[in-house]
């Protein structure tokens, strides 16, 4: 690198003039490379110090440095550097500055593992402008870089086909960038992890190949869990850096005093060996936690654990200690979940869970087994119908098929890891936990989650309470029965105390023991803000939660976080604008025929094909009910608005009040079905959706949130049928046309939904259906378990969503007779529904009938009918195999209705 600096040296002011840089060596950054970097920096006017000790601690005042170069954030002084506003950067920053001949923003080169795209430079091909802007905001927010011009610095070129001009240029110039579909970027952001590009690479991406999707997904190797698969470690370790097999050459314990807790129950022989290794590695052994710099224990409990944690000492378990010995390299015990002591009590809620694994192999499987047990759940190698969760790396296995039939929750390992890291059960509704990118084995991103230090403080630390900086007029005494509130986060080894107090004045173990009787006042707890850089995909996948951001794994100081957020303001504003477009970041860049294009809500999370109105369930078959035609009436004049906001519709000329984000309050949550201007016109849909949101109308695909339902006529689509359960006000498409043309929200009564022909065809009245829906409150099918074949017209997921929108449970049926059945009774309307929480429109419910939605024209379905009848018989119920028309009429009319013509005989 030094040879490339000749053109820079001749400038008036050297490039790195005024910079003082420390270079941290590690396994990822050798001493030789560090010396090359040092030469480049000093030749161009900077000062440089190489830290080549193990552990790599910076001697003296860290604040004398302006930059610290490291390939990883996993070194002892990382948090101290952030607290001191020192830039921690990767070596690539030096090379990039020399290439540009100017100092560039170091933020993109931060080694924080939470910035999943920190080494990525993205260029987009011929994609819609809105998609390009959204991708730019997303990649910058996640630590990467975006460029509009193709150059040798680009690592990823995003395009739809190789016919793109930039793709042709990249191939002609032989650039070493990976050409991938936009699906890759989108899936990375949905997961919050950087996954392999292999299935997304052009010209023949596996995710679009039918034959590839039928092949087994190969297990992935992962170095992040090596040496961290169990909290108790394995056998006695041997240092890898030893010059001879029997040598015990260590330096990782230099200057450290280690205390081994008694809760590990080490034998005298093993303890002697471990203590000998520590001493030979330059460390000392102590039995006094106040003197120790490192505390090793098994559980997050006990007085010594509290003191060590409160004083900011290194607290790890035996597995972590073995890792240090084996690799002779320091690593934070919070970097890997199984390197930190385990809780003594289960994560609240996990004690009742029975969890099994699928598609994880080798160390990843052992690691997840240990994590399940450490979380307090029961682990089973084989899966049975009483399992509550299945954790899988992808959905291609018999266990996954069985889990669908048994209604067992199917999640990826991120749900388990993040629940354990936060010591709090994470919601299964977060799309990140149920995302399974096609042709990807998620075993490749196992072990990348870190312990959440803020969660430890909330749940496990009992720190000394500091007085507020106010006159000491009176102090509330803390009794022995009260918990001491946590104080501010302390990242260094110095205990938190009032300014002016030094280390000598900090409490000892004896003082902590008497802490409960010490008069003091409550201190306002300060929590870590960090830089919450989350995957933009979460904002696209979680229903109408604007700019919701997952927590970062970093532990930076609040002030540094505010500085970083200020630097990112423009990027985040741009991203926030684009992320709210229907379909998200890469929506418009995908073909309508792409089965894995990301949609909204459940369609989007499941990777279903998405168009403005995805599918008309029945285009030819119509209801011909003998029932008397219901009287048609106009939609109610009352306007349904969001229950949380309770905002009334303003007058046309009234000025709109705006939220702190700059957007008006949400007046309507609108669902459209069959709106022709948006069909196969994704760019127009994106533009119109943004205009509507600026007026106060949020376009949603969640049927439970709908207040306005807009369609050109009555259509038997999933959206329309499912939305009726929410009793929305129906409006004509002229309502939307007026909003877009006049840039104002008209009165809904001026745009009534009228379809006399449709009501005659389907033999039900819309207003009567709406009134019943108001009575049902989404519980028409509460307590109902309806089985459904996967061969039915429209697909299983379509009817599953309709049933769930009405409060029921839809179970996939594949011919097995070992399924659980929930039985209803006539005496208890709604079956399993609590009293007062059931539908009032259950007139034709016979109580003991078990329904199966099936297709009479499919031979595969006919083979399953005998086994279904056996299932019903075992449950003491009457089997009834029906056409999907039955469910559609029930959902559209919002009443339970039965007629023999719906039943399939055979």
From TrEMBL:
Residues 649-658 have a biased composition (Basic residues). One of its GO terms (cellular component) is Cul8-RING ubiquitin ligase complex. CDD domains: BRCT_BRC1_like_rpt2 (cd18436), BRCT_BRC1_like_rpt3 (cd18437), BRCT_BRC1_like_rpt4 (cd18438), BRCT_BRC1_like_rpt5 (cd17743). InterPro entries: BRCT_dom, BRCT_dom_sf, CellCycle_DNARepair_Reg. Residues 479-513, 586-665, 826-848 are annotated as: Disordered. It holds the Pfam family PTCB-BRCT. Residues 591-628 have a biased composition (Basic and acidic residues). One of its GO terms (biological process) is DNA double-strand break attachment to nuclear envelope. Residues 11-111, 112-202, 248-296, 342-425 form the BRCT domain. This is BRCT domain-containing protein. It comes from Patellaria atrata CBS 101060. The lineage of its organism: Eukaryota, Fungi, Dikarya, Ascomycota, Pezizomycotina.
């Amino acid at each position: 690198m030094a040879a490339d600096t000749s053109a820079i040296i001749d400038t008036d002011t050297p490039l790195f003039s005024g910079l003082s840089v420390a270079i941290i060596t590690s396994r990822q950054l050798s001493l030789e490379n560090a010396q090359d970097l040092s030469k480049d920096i000093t030749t161009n006017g900077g000062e440089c110090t190489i830290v080549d000790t193990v552990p790599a601690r910076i001697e003296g005042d860290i604040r004398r440095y302006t930059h610290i170069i490291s390939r990883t954030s996993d070194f002892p002084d990382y948090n101290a550097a952030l607290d001191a506003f020192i830039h921690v950067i990767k070596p690539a920053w030096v090379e990039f500055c020399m290439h540009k001949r100017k100092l560039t923003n170091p933020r993109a080169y931060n080694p924080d593992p939470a910035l999943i795209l920190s080494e990525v430079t993205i260029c987009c091909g011929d994609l819609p402008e809105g998609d390009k802007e959204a991708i730019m905001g997303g990649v910058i927010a996640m630590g990467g870089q975006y460029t509009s011009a193709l150059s040798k610095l680009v690592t990823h070129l995003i395009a739809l086909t190789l016919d793109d001009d930039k793709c042709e240029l990249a191939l002609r110039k032989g650039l070493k960038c990976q050409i991938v579909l936009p699906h890759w970027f989108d899936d990375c952001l949905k997961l919050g992890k950087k996954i392999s590009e292999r299935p997304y690479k052009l010209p023949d991406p596996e995710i679009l190949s039918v034959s590839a999707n039928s092949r087994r997904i190969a297990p992935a190797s992962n170095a992040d869990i090596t040496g961290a698969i169990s909290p108790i470690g394995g056998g006695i370790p041997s240092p890898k850096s030893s010059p001879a097999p029997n040598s015990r050459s260590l330096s990782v314990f230099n200057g450290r005093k280690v205390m081994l807790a008694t809760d590990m129950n080490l034998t005298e022989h093993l303890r002697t060996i471990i203590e000998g290794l520590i001493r030979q590695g330059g460390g000392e052994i102590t039995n006094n936690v106040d003197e120790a710099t490192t505390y090793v224990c098994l559980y997050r409990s006990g007085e010594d654990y509290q003191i060590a944690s409160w004083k900011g000492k290194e607290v790890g378990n035996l597995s972590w200690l073995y890792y240090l010995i084996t690799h002779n390299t320091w690593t934070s015990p919070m970097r890997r979940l199984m390197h930190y002591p385990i809780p003594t009590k289960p994560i609240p809620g996990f004690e009742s869970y029975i969890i099994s694994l699928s598609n994880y192999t080798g160390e990843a499987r052992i690691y997840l087994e240990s994590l399940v047990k450490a979380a307090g759940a029961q682990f089973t190698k084989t899966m049975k119908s009483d399992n509550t969760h299945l954790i899988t790396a992808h959905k291609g296995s018999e266990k996954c098929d069985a889990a669908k039939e048994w209604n067992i929750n199917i999640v990826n390992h991120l749900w388990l890891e993040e629940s354990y890291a936060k010591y709090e059960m994470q919601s299964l509704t977060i799309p990140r936990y149920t995302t399974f990118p096609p042709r990807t084995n998620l075993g490749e991103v196992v072990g990348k989650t870190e312990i959440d230090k803020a969660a430890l403080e909330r749940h496990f630390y009992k720190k000394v309470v500091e007085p507020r900086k106010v006159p000491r007029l009176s102090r509330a005494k803390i009794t022995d029965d009260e918990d001491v509130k946590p104080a501010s986060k302390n990242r260094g080894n110095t205990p938190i105390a009032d300014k002016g107090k030094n280390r000598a004045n900090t409490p000892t173990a004896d003082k902590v023991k008497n802490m409960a009787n010490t008069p003091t006042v409550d201190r306002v707890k300060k929590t870590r803000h960090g830089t919450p850089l989350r995957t933009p995909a979460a904002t696209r996948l979680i229903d109408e939660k604007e700019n919701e951001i997952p927590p970062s794994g970093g532990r930076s100081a609040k002030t540094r976080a505010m500085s970083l957020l200020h630097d990112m303001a423009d990027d985040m504003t741009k991203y926030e604008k684009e992320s709210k477009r229907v379909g998200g970041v890469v929506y418009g860049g995908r073909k309508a025929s792409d089965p894995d294009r990301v949609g909204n809500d459940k369609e989007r999370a499941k990777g279903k094909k998405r168009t403005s109105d995805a599918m008309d369930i029945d285009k030819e078959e119509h209801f011909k009910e003998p029932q008397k035609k219901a009287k048609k009436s106009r939609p109610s004049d009352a306007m349904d608005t969001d229950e949380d906001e309770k905002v009334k519709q303003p007058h046309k000329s009234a000025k709109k009040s705006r939220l702190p984000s700059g957007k008006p309050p949400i007046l309507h949550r609108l669902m459209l079905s069959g709106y022709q201007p948006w069909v196969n016109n994704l760019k127009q849909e994106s533009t119109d959706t943004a205009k509507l949101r600026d007026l106060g109308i949020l376009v949603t695909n969640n049927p439970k949130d709908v207040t306005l339902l807009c369609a050109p006529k009555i259509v038997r689509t999933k959206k329309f049928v499912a939305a009726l359960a929410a009793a929305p006000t129906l409006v004509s498409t002229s309502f939307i046309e007026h909003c877009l043309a006049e840039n104002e929200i008209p009165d809904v009564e001026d745009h009534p939904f009228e379809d006399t022909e449709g009501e005659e065809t389907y033999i039900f009245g819309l207003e009567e259906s709406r009134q019943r829906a108001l009575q049902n409150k989404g519980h028409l099918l509460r307590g109902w378990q309806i089985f459904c074949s996967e061969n039915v017209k429209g697909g299983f997921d379509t009817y599953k969503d309709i049933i769930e929108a009405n409060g029921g449970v839809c179970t996939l049926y594949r011919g097995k007779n070992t399924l659980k059945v929930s039985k209803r009774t006539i005496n208890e309307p709604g079956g399993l529904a609590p009293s007062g929480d059931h539908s009032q429109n259950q007139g034709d419910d016979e109580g003991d009938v078990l329904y199966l939605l099936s297709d009479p024209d499919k031979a595969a379905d006919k083979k399953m009918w005998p086994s279904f009848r056996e299932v019903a018989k075992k449950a003491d119920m009457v089997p009834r195999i029906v056409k999907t028309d039955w469910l559609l009429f029930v959902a559209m009319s919002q009443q339970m209705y039965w007629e023999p013509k719906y039943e399939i005989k055979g």
